Amino acid sequence: MKSLLLIAGAALALSAHAGTLTPIDLSGDSTADAYLESGSGVLWDASGNANGLMLYGPAKTFVEGATIGTVAGWRLPTIDELKSLYATLNAVPIGTLAGPMAAGPFTDIQAGYYWSTTSTGSTQYALDTRTGTFLNSYTPSGTPLYAWAVHSPVPEPTVVALLLVAIPVLVLALRRRSQSLARAQLRHFAQAPLTAPTF
């Protein structure tokens, strides 16, 4: 499996009130396949459209069967995760309506409703990207909506990628420290007076 690489640029700060988005390369080709959103703590597929309009069951099945980059195990977001992403993209506190959802770095966000896994009784919550409203009036077998793939927890290879970045930095720091200690010892011996051994 190709290792995951954190794309240069670290975090894209959008607001003091909102979260941040960090681009993540899941395929090893130096392009962002997903974004880690700090407010929800989940990865969001870089494409805001899994497969067009779908009923809830097919949308859930499609997203759960998806492999993005080299990572499987995706799912639909909860309503709280959608609210967090909306707040981050629109740079507002969670729960604030700010009109249409901003696209930010994402591609293919559709103007319409997006499924969430959050339900009350026989209806699902959905986000309307045109208005920023969250509604609980969609029956899984009634109206086709859009789907967006998320992944949580962050895939284990991402942790490995972070370690792959951190280990060389740690090795370099330890090497510099040992070189610094060696130089200090040499200075100490160079400054110490030489004495002849006594027998």
Structure, explained:
- This protein has helices at 56-64, 79-90, 156-191, and strands spanning 5-6, 12-13, 20-25, 34-37, 42-45, 113-120, 123-128, 133-138, 150-151.
- The protein is elongated, with a radius of gyration of 25 Å.
- The strands form 2 sheets. Strands 1, 2, 3, 4, 5 and 9 form a 6-stranded antiparallel β-sheet that branches. Strands 6-7-8 form a 3-stranded antiparallel β-sheet, covered by helices on one side.
- The model is unreliable at 1-16 (pLDDT under 50).
- By secondary structure, it is of the alpha+beta class.
- Strand 4 (34-37) and strand 5 form a beta hairpin.
- It has 3 helices and 9 strands.
- It has one domain.
Please give a handful of descriptors for the protein shown.
six-stranded antiparallel β-sheet; three-stranded antiparallel β-sheet; alpha+beta; disordered N terminus; 9 strands
Question: What is the global morphology?
Answer: elongated
Helix content: 25-40%
- Tally of structural domains: 1
Major sheet, described briefly? 6 strands, antiparallel
Spans of at least 5 consecutive residues whose pLDDT stays below 50 are 1-16
Annotation, overall tally of beta strands = 9
How far from one another are the termini?
67 Å
Percent of sequence in beta strands: 15-25%
Radius of gyration: 25 Å
**Structural class given helices, strands, pairing?**
alpha+beta
Brief description of this entry?
The protein is of the alpha+beta class and 199 residues long. It has three helices and nine strands; from the N terminus they run βββββααββββα.
